[in-house]
Design goal:
Number of helices: 9
Distance between the termini: 29 Å
Shape: globular
Helix content: 25-40%
CATH architecture: Alpha-Beta Barrel
Structural class: alpha/beta
Number of domains: 1
CATH superfamily: Aldolase class I
Number of strands: 10
Strand order of the largest sheet: 1-2-3-4-7-8-9-10
Strand content: 15-25%
CATH topology: TIM Barrel
Order of helices and strands: EHEHEHEEEHEHEHEHEHH
Length: 287
């Protein structure tokens, strides 16, 4: 099998940095990216946070530029995968950030999802919301992603969204072979289920690179192993989980990357360097 490309999802969108060890500032993001790279990550997936409390997302291009510049200075070879997801029709902020930082990969949510979670007491964990990603909104992202020379990573939260990616290819919205990210473990989306992965592969464009984002606790690591066995690439980090195989807490992003690297080796795959990942994914260098 091909070498496994490891992506580290450094921080996510809303996790409270006072409660969990997620990086927020440019210096923290750069240090976390460097440790993740040294542990085996070729790619870092990053979210931008406002710099006062670190709790809310920021779509200020100056904040995004400071974070990406710091990461590239600390770790010149690493590949930047930038978020673009936002609720609502106003995508001016995400598009401005993409144009400012010129990531090699840009994540684009490929379909709409009722984003839900219930608590044990029978109440909603948060007010039910629609993570809206209609075709017109995705098309605007893809136009800019193509214009800046980045590769779109299609975030797929459900089986129908996976199937939609082929339709985007059919109508010309995607200009190149799609890169899939199966997001598994959201309560109202695809479960993190080892038996689901082989079924999903029936519905992707043949030859497309893919990975699984697994959200949950210790149970997700069997899904990572199955993804590695099936030839997928690997992603984890504090955006996705605070738990390691066996149930222990992840102290930082690098510990999750180390766990992924061990899984890759155990199933007979080498871990790709950033330079190898660039070649495998057809990426240009931004450093």
């Amino acid at each position: 099998m091909t070498k496994a490309i490891i992506t580290c999802a450094l921080n996510g969108v809303l996790t409270d940095p006072k409660e969990h060890p997620v990086p927020v500032t440019p210096a923290e993001m750069a240090a976390a990216a460097r440790r993740a790279h040294d542990a085996g990550a070729a790619i870092v997936h990053i979210h931008y946070r406002e710099q006062t409390t670190g709790r809310a997302p920021s779509w200020d291009p100056a904040v995004a530029t400071a974070i990406v510049d710091a990461i590239r200075a600390a770790c010149p070879r690493i590949i930047i995968n930038s978020t673009s997801g936002v609720i609502g029709p106003d995508v001016s902020g995400p598009l401005a950030c993409l144009r400012a930082v010129l990531p090699e990969i840009a994540a684009a949510n490929a379909g709409t999802l009722n984003y839900l979670k219930a608590k044990k007491d029978g109440t909603w964990a948060w007010p039910p919301m629609v993570f809206d990603n209609p075709v017109e909104k995705l098309a605007r992202y893809l136009e800019v992603i193509d214009a800046i020379g980045a590769v779109p990573e299609l975030e797929c939260f459900d089986v129908g969204i996976v199937r939609s990616v082929r339709l985007y290819c059919d109508v010309g919205m995607l200009k190149r072979t799609p890169q899939y990210n199966f997001v598994m473990g959201v309560a109202s989306g695809m479960p993190a289920d080892v038996d689901l992965l082989p079924l999903l592969l029936r519905y992707i464009v043949p030859g497309s690179p893919w990975q699984a984002t697994c959200i949950g606790r210790a149970e997700i690591w069997s899904v990572h192993r199955r993804a590695a066995e099936l030839g997928g690439h690997l992603r984890s980090g504090l955006e996705d989980t605070f738990y390691l195989p066996g149930g222990g807490r992840a102290t930082d992003n690098a510990s999750a990357v180390e766990a992924l690297a061990r899984i890759a080796v155990e199933v007979g795959r080498d871990v790709a360097s950033a330079a190898e990942a660039r070649e495998m994914l057809g990426l240009s260098s931004r450093s």
